[in-house]
Amino acid sequence: MRHWSRRRGLFFKSEARRLPDLGTSILLFVAGCASWIIGIFSGGGGSIVLLAVITNLIRVKTIAPVITIASLMAGPTRILVSWRLIEWAVVRWYLPGAITGAIVGSWFFTWANAAWLRLIVGLFLVSMPIQYRLGAQARSFPMRLPWFIPVSVAVGVISGVIGASSLVSAPFYLNYGLTKERMIATGAVHSIFIQITKIATYGSLGVLSSGSILEGVAAGWGAIVAILVTRRWLDSFKELWFRRLAILLMLISGLSMLWRSRGLLF
To answer: What is the arithmetic mean of pLDDT over 23-42?
Structure first.
């Protein structure tokens, strides 16, 4: 039987019968580890990869909270290993809009259908290979710092509704000139504040369950292991291949979102 309990000022939904079993926890750990390894070498899109991987592992309504918890666990680890590479000028312009967008998106999550938003994000990501000429072109347009405000609001909303939005920011980071470690480290700072905002909003709206928390922790430990294992590999990775893999991941993730939203098109 479901019941509501108040803990530390937030409302959590207890669902003892839906706690993850050992097998699911192991699969989530492996999924988190594999997703973040892929994401580290392709623009920091670990959460997007995890979104695609765990769709058939857990209930649809818990996907966004699970990815949020995993991303929150991964963020501090990435910041600790890449602190000196954070682009603080971008952070200052990005955070206010991102936090605002995350609050709005988390509220939408409780009642809105994410299918149309997923379709729009999918179309945006699929267009990236054309804009960057399959990675041969370093920038598709000049990006200025103030433009990160509307970008961050949109990213926050997308993250709140579908759970993951890291790859949506990647084209704007690339166009500003951030690559490899600087992109991932700067994105990790943004991610922490977005995830904290989302968890607080999810909790206050009663959409966090004990089961989704444990599932998120399992995936989060996998993400932490991935960051620690690959911390030195990224230094020697060529920027051209980093950019090409980032664009390839955008294409694959976009196609995956379009496939999941095909019911709106056909």
So the answer is: 88
